[in-house]
Amino acid sequence: MSNPLLSTLVGLKGNPRACIYTEPLWGLSMMLCLPYASVYMLALGLNDTQVGFIATISMLSQVVFAFLGGPITDKMGRKKATAVFDFIAWCVPALIWWRAENFWFFFVAAILNGSMRVTANSWNCLLIEDAEKKHITGIYSLAIVCGQFCAFFAPISSILVSRLTLVPAIRILYINAFVLMTLKIIILYFASKETKVGSMRLLETRDKNIFQLAGGYRGVIKIILHSRGTIFALVIAALIWIVSMINTTFWQVIVNKKLLVPDAMLPMFMVLRSILAILFLLFVMPKLTGGLLKIPLVLGFACYFVGQGLLILVPVDGMVKYPLLCLSLVFDGFGFGALSMLAESLIALHVNPDERARIMAIQHMLIMMATAPFGWIAGILSDVSRNLPFVLNLFMIAVGVLITFIYYRKNPDHSAELHGAAAEN
């Protein structure tokens, strides 16, 4: 095949194939709910600050589970940890969101949902540990593409909301999320097998408990601190997470509450954003990842900056707001597609493979710690003006571009990126 990403998809085997081929079920479950998550909270009586606070609680919970994610992944195995914590992080909260009535339902669900950090660790290990390094960038691109394909089913959400009104429709979507996520967990469990590194770590950790394993983090932190590439990947990932969290939480709020876009139309904008992200990852990113990831990073940040800036400038009155929103999403979709893939790829390319689970656990913990306060901060800003969370995003994006230029100027050794990306072609 002429497209390297499609060639990678067809050639997938073993665990990468099981992980990628089941990923659309995550999109068809949770991604149908996400366009409404914040306005669903507002409809049940929460205010902007409380919505932001829930995002912060979720991040703080993720900090704890990210810390424990490495030892749990090593102790339980990649396959079993993914199954158990996918159920805890997504299936149980889906039932709570289904019956939610006030702030406390979302508070409890956010704490449980934070256990997704264990799965983020175990699933990533399951995905790439038995894969060739040259395919890592392509595999992460495929994971995002498969997750975004759910956008084509977003009209289902629109029809439900227009026919049943917001709250009853979203409750149905959360029941759908529970069923499909449970199905995904079962299929992935039986279609995958423990990785080679995972099997070795199971033997090595057999006589140790979770807290004894966590005690070995001091050495892992030293490994991270001695790798400039790992530190750079960590900082960039944290900035991308902050921007993504604020955008995910408050985009629907500004569009629905400030720009007065009807509830039923919200998923249609997500369709456009997802389609653009898919096209970007399929046809643009493979041409940009044949060497250093500097250019794709800068391009991704630049697209996100333009998209967020346009969103702030969209007028409340007149039909011109709809084409401007679409134009904003063109840049948003490209920026999201690029940066989501690059954040994970940078970490995977620079990580020490012998300590992948524990290093990625510490990295995710640090990323969540850096990200956590910004949900509450953005909520407070949104209560003042619904533009302000996106002004904050513009600042974070500018910092990301500056750090990218500084890193690639001062650090001549980029062998990990060159090896991983060049072989992709």
Characterization of the model:
With 425 residues, the chain is mainly alpha-helical. It has one domain: Growth Hormone, Chain: A (Up-down Bundle). The chain is built from 20 helices and no strands. The protein starts with a helix and ends with a helix. Residues 420-425 have low confidence and may be disordered.
Concise synopsis of the structure shown:
This protein has helices spanning 4-11, 14-31, 37-43, 48-76, 78-98, 103-113, 116-128, 136-148, 154-164, 166-191, 196-204, 210-214, 217-225, 228-258, 266-288, 294-313, 321-350, 356-384, 388-410, 415-422. With 425 residues, the protein is mostly helical. The N and C termini lie close together (12 Å).
Tally of structural domains: 1
> Total number of β-strand segments?
0
Q: Structural class of the helix and strand makeup?
A: mainly alpha
Report the average pLDDT across residues: 85
Low-confidence stretches: 420-425
Computed CA radius of gyration, to the nearest angstrom: 20 Å
Give helix % range: over 70%
Q: State the order of secondary-structure elements, H for helix, E for strand.
A: HHHHHHHHHHHHHHHHHHHH
Gap from first CA to last CA: 12 Å
Write out the CATH superfamily name: MFS general substrate transporter like domains
Under CATH, the topology can be stated as Growth Hormone, Chain: A
Strand content: under 5%
> How would you characterize the largest beta sheet?
none
Q: So what's the CATH class? A: Mainly Alpha
Shape: globular
Individual helix count? 20
CATH architectural group: Up-down Bundle
